[in-house]
Amino acid sequence: MRKMDRYESAPNKKHGFSVFLAVTALLFSGFIGVLIYAASDLERLASQQAGFQTAPVVTTQESSREDAGPGSDSSPAAPWEGEWNLLLVNRWNPVPENYTVDLAELPGGEKVDQRICQPLEEMFQAAQEANWGELPTVLSGYRTQEEQEKLFREEVESNLAEGLSQEEAEAEALRWVAAPGTSEHQLGLAVDVSGATYDVFLWLQEHSWEYGFIWRYPGDKTDLTGTAEEVWHYRYVGKEAAREIYEQGLCLEEYVEK
């Protein structure tokens, strides 16, 4: 009877061991699955965070600031807390990461920082009266990061088409178009002006300071500004600063570093 019990209990033990193995395998497979899912989830999260860090900030008060791009050898700007009208942006000083601009639309569709609309209008009206009724217009005002990237890319491609190497094409482009993230147009404080005659630019060079604007890129300051002469580019800095810059023959780089 005891032998019979031992004989009958043997299959039960085998069956129990098989169940144990099956359960163990199932649990192990589930554990591996959890690890794989967790790893993929962490990878997705890291990817999202990276995207958040490099994406330009765009709000109702638009702002754009990504990597400074070609031509900039500076580290990302620290949060900015200075006077908004004197913020220095050039190839060595990118747009601060926390900079935002409250935009207003001008006739013709271009946009600028709403704080410079009134002095800009007053300056244009005075230029109109001094230049036989011609009213200057804004060809280019505020630009997003994407718009600046497009302009820079097109300039580089144009230089490549003329036979320059990639390095030469970018270097030449930087003389005329700011690298993305380093353009004053991304502040909303600068405008490229159009006039039917060159006299408009001569008048602006002599009188823009009266309205808080400066001729930003004179030809004799290229080494300091990093930009070739642009008779059409004017930047708002406020009346006091504009007067001092004009009277002392300075560029913005010299003025803010005094």
How would you characterize the overall build of this protein?
With 258 residues, the chain is α+β, with helices and mostly antiparallel strands. The protein has 2 domains: 54 residues; 173 residues, 2-Layer Sandwich (Muramoyl-pentapeptide Carboxypeptidase, domain 2). Helices cover 47% and strands 10% of the residues. The protein contains 8 helices and 6 strands. Helix 3 crosses helix 4. It is globular, with a radius of gyration of 32 Å. It starts with a helix and ends with a helix.
**CATH level 1 class label of the largest domain:** Alpha Beta
Contiguous uncertain segments of 5+ residues: 1-60, 66-79
Percent range for β-strand residues: 5-15%
Give the CATH architecture of the largest domain.
2-Layer Sandwich
How many beta-strand runs?
A: 6
Q: Order of SSEs, N→C?
A: HEEHEHHEHEHEHH
Overall average residue pLDDT: 78
Structural category is: alpha+beta
CATH third-tier fold name of the largest domain = Muramoyl-pentapeptide Carboxypeptidase, domain 2
Name the features:
258 residues, Muramoyl-pentapeptide Carboxypeptidase, domain 2, two-stranded antiparallel ribbon, 8 helices, disordered N terminus, alpha+beta, 10% strand, four-stranded antiparallel beta sheet
